[in-house]
Specification:
Layout lengths: L8 H15 L21 H14 L4 H18 L6 H17 L3 H4 L3
Helix pairs in contact: 2-3, 3-4
Amino acid sequence: MLAVLLTEKDLFRSVSGVIKLCVGGLKSDDRYGWYPHAKYKITSIWDMNKYLFPFLDRYPLQAKKAKVYKLFREIVIMVCNKEHLSDGGFKKIVKLRDKIRSMGKKAKTFGNR
């Protein structure tokens, strides 16, 4: 699932417009009454491949998030291509997952599992 939370009013308007242009018919979630923000949800790996990845390739993330995104994108594309069904593909996905975990906030406790 993808959740985008924007709090600056000007940033919200400009980025929201770009997201709507690139992604299309996704709906904003404003039921909580806290403005200005919107939440766009993508729950399918097929939608990630179709909408999210082209958007993030066009407007790249920065620093550590960019590295994690590239690994995550590779995993999702492998699953879309059904590479996770083979032993070699599954092992590669597990290695990529371990790389992502080692970059996370709980990286110090990752080796203790």
